[in-house]
Write a structure and sequence with these properties.
29% of the residues lie in helices and 15% in strands. By secondary structure, the chain is α+β, with helices and mostly antiparallel strands. The chain starts with 5 loop residues before the first strand and ends in a 26-residue tail after the last helix. 33% of the residues are buried.
């Protein structure tokens, strides 16, 4: 076994990767972060996505061994792997399962969607709720109490700010400013308090002073640092309490969608941390990896950060462990259809989900199909586009289909069928036009319901928080806020209709409601601020009816006092 080379620069590793013509992975090897150290030497005043030319730490080129989370087939029994070459004199081995070319016949008909009651209860609970009220179902008092208590504990015990305190309203104003930066981005966070007409924002300056904002940002915490040594094995100790509370709130309304998808998310991060991933083929190559369970519209029911290699005494593959962990939030498996990609799929996983009464479909790699004798890829590619081959496992009731599109794709299911066939259009280079081709129903359903996690990511990136921080868990904190925002937005549209509000206006409603909490109150620090404006600007109902910081408005006509026993004319 050869030693994997380590380089200081990413470009040196890439040059070695292509010069040696090897197959493997380039992995980031940053040093471990001390549990008691939060800050990094980064410029956090600029907003938006930073320009990065290299990675922090070292990089390693692995070409003999796979990373524990890169390929699942390393953990499979050798009996399930297809040999690459047939040795001379070797006898043909029969498939280990009963594969036949016949239409699938399952033990029972698919269970009809049975979650209508959960959705009706959801609409009843959130009927006539404002965007802020729905958002605070996730960012509730328990989360604000956690941030408030841990921030004060960190300031007084570790920063020696004896007697320092903060109002809970200021934490809400702080989060409101972060949400505000998502749809109103300036080059630097200090520009929001600028006196220049084209930079400064009066709604921000009147809500919180710049010094008070910077102080909250430097002190904000979510865990007790004195317990760091007891939780040294937890790489996400600093953010774990906030994650656990948010996951509980995401599940408070139940799983109210039938079609669920499981996939990975990437949280952009360019600093130093042992859990930072480098995945060459992803749009976001550097960052933390999250596993997520989402509905077909993008609502996230559960998420979990990837925490590296675990003690796996049962030899269960990583993909199987992730699927079972994500599905632990589902109480009635018969009501749901699960979709995932070939990172997780294996024949053994479909059999296990079948035993648990889950209906599951996913793309699958050829060396995980338990030697399903479908037509080889090279032969199927010679046939016209739209051709397919299939086999059905009569013993375990698993269907495997290989379909020829731009390239061959294999898919497996423990409940879906091939017919009725769907029709899709593809570009024909010879005729210079789009031509219809046949598509098996199992692939049509997979394409329709698999994109829940990607849709959540797409909505999140539209107006994601632009403020950057020096702490390694800052990007995870802002990610949790954005995820709560997307879930709130999707709930609001589910209750009030798809065209009830846009995502930008939904974020504006919450940001303005929080920022207006600071208007008319004394600021903590900083230069004197301008008085709140009395002009007729847009004011959400949450601010208009809170009975705090309002100004008298002159009326044209004089009226009697509205108090029952008073007859004066104010």
């Amino acid at each position: 076994m050869t030693t994997n080379p380590v380089f200081k620069k990413l470009q040196d590793a890439v040059d070695y990767f292509y010069s040696e013509e090897i197959e493997g992975d380039i992995l980031a090897l940053p040093p471990d972060v001390d549990e008691l150290t939060d800050e990094e030497v980064l410029d956090d005043e600029t907003t938006g996505i930073p320009i990065v030319t290299d990675i922090a730490g070292y990089v390693e080129v692995q070409h003999n061994e796979r990373e524990n989370n890169s390929d699942e087939e390393d953990n499979l029994p050798l009996s399930l792997l297809v040999p690459k070459k047939k040795m001379k004199g070797e006898k043909f081995q029969k498939p280990i399962t009963n594969w036949i070319k016949a239409n699938p016949e399952y033990n029972a008909d698919p269970v009809k969607y049975n979650c209508r009651g959960i959705e009706d209860n959801l609409k009843g609970a959130l009927h006539q709720a404002s965007p802020l009220e729905i958002f605070e179902n996730f960012f509730d008092d328990g989360i604000y109490d956690l941030i408030w208590n841990e921030t004060i504990r960190y300031a007084t015990t570790q920063k020696n700010k004896q007697g320092w305190s903060i109002r809970k309203e200021n934490i809400k104003i702080f989060i409101g400013f972060l949400i505000f930066s998502g749809y109103h981005t300036l080059p630097s966070e200090r520009d929001y308090w600028s006196d220049e007409d084209d930079l400064g924002q009066s709604i921000v300056k009147n809500a919180l002073s710049r010094n008070a904002y910077l102080e909250i940002k430097s002190l904000i915490h979510f865990a007790d640092n004195t317990k760091a040594l007891d939780n040294r094995t937890d790489k996400y100790f600093k953010i774990r309490p906030l994650m656990e509370k948010m996951q509980t709130n995401f599940k408070k309304f139940g799983v109210f969608q039938e079609n669920l998808s499981i996939d990975e998310m990437m949280v952009r991060y360019y600093g130093r941390h042992s859990m930072k991933q480098f995945i060459r083929t992803k749009p976001i190559r550097f960052g933390y990896k999250l596993w997520a369970l989402c509905g077909e519209d993008g609502y996230c029911f559960s998420f979990s950060p990837y925490a590296g290699k675990e003690d796996n005494q049962s030899n269960t593959p990583l993909g199987t462990r992730v699927i079972l962990s994500m599905l632990s939030v589902v109480k009635n498996p018969k009501c749901y259809c699960i979709y995932f990609d070939n990172f997780f799929s294996s024949h053994a996983l479909f059999v296990r989900l079948k035993e648990m009464k889950f209906r599951a479909t996913g793309t699958i790699r050829e060396n995980r199909t338990a030697r399903c004798p479908v037509q080889p890829t090279k032969e199927l590619e010679r046939l016209p586009r739209g051709s397919y081959d299939f086999r059905f496992d009569t013993e375990n009731k698993i269907l495997v289909v290989k379909w020829n599109d731009n390239k061959c794709v294999s898919i497996a299911s423990n409940f879906d069928t091939i017919t009725p066939m769907a029709t899709v259009t593809r570009w024909n280079g010879k005729t210079k036009s789009r031509m219809p081709i046949q598509q098996p129903r199992i692939i049509f359903n997979y394409n329709q319901y698999m994109g829940g996690v990607d849709h959540h990511d797409w909505l999140l990136e539209k107006y994601s928080i632009a403020i950057r921080g020096k702490k390694w868990y800052w990007c995870l904190f802002t990610r949790i806020i954005d995820m709560a925002m997307i879930n709130s937005f999707l709930l609001y549209r589910r209750v009030n209709g798809k065209n009830s509000i846009t995502l930008k206006d939904f974020r504006r409603e919450i940001a303005i409601s929080y920022l207006k909490l600071g208007h008319g109150r004394s600021v903590m620090k900083g230069r004197p601020l301008s008085l709140p404006s009395t002009s007729k600007t847009y004011v959400p109902d949450n601010v208009r009816l809170d009975e705090v910081g309002h100004f008298l408005e002159k009326r044209k006509n004089q009226r009697r006092c509205q108090y029952p026993s008073c007859k004066s004319r104010p």
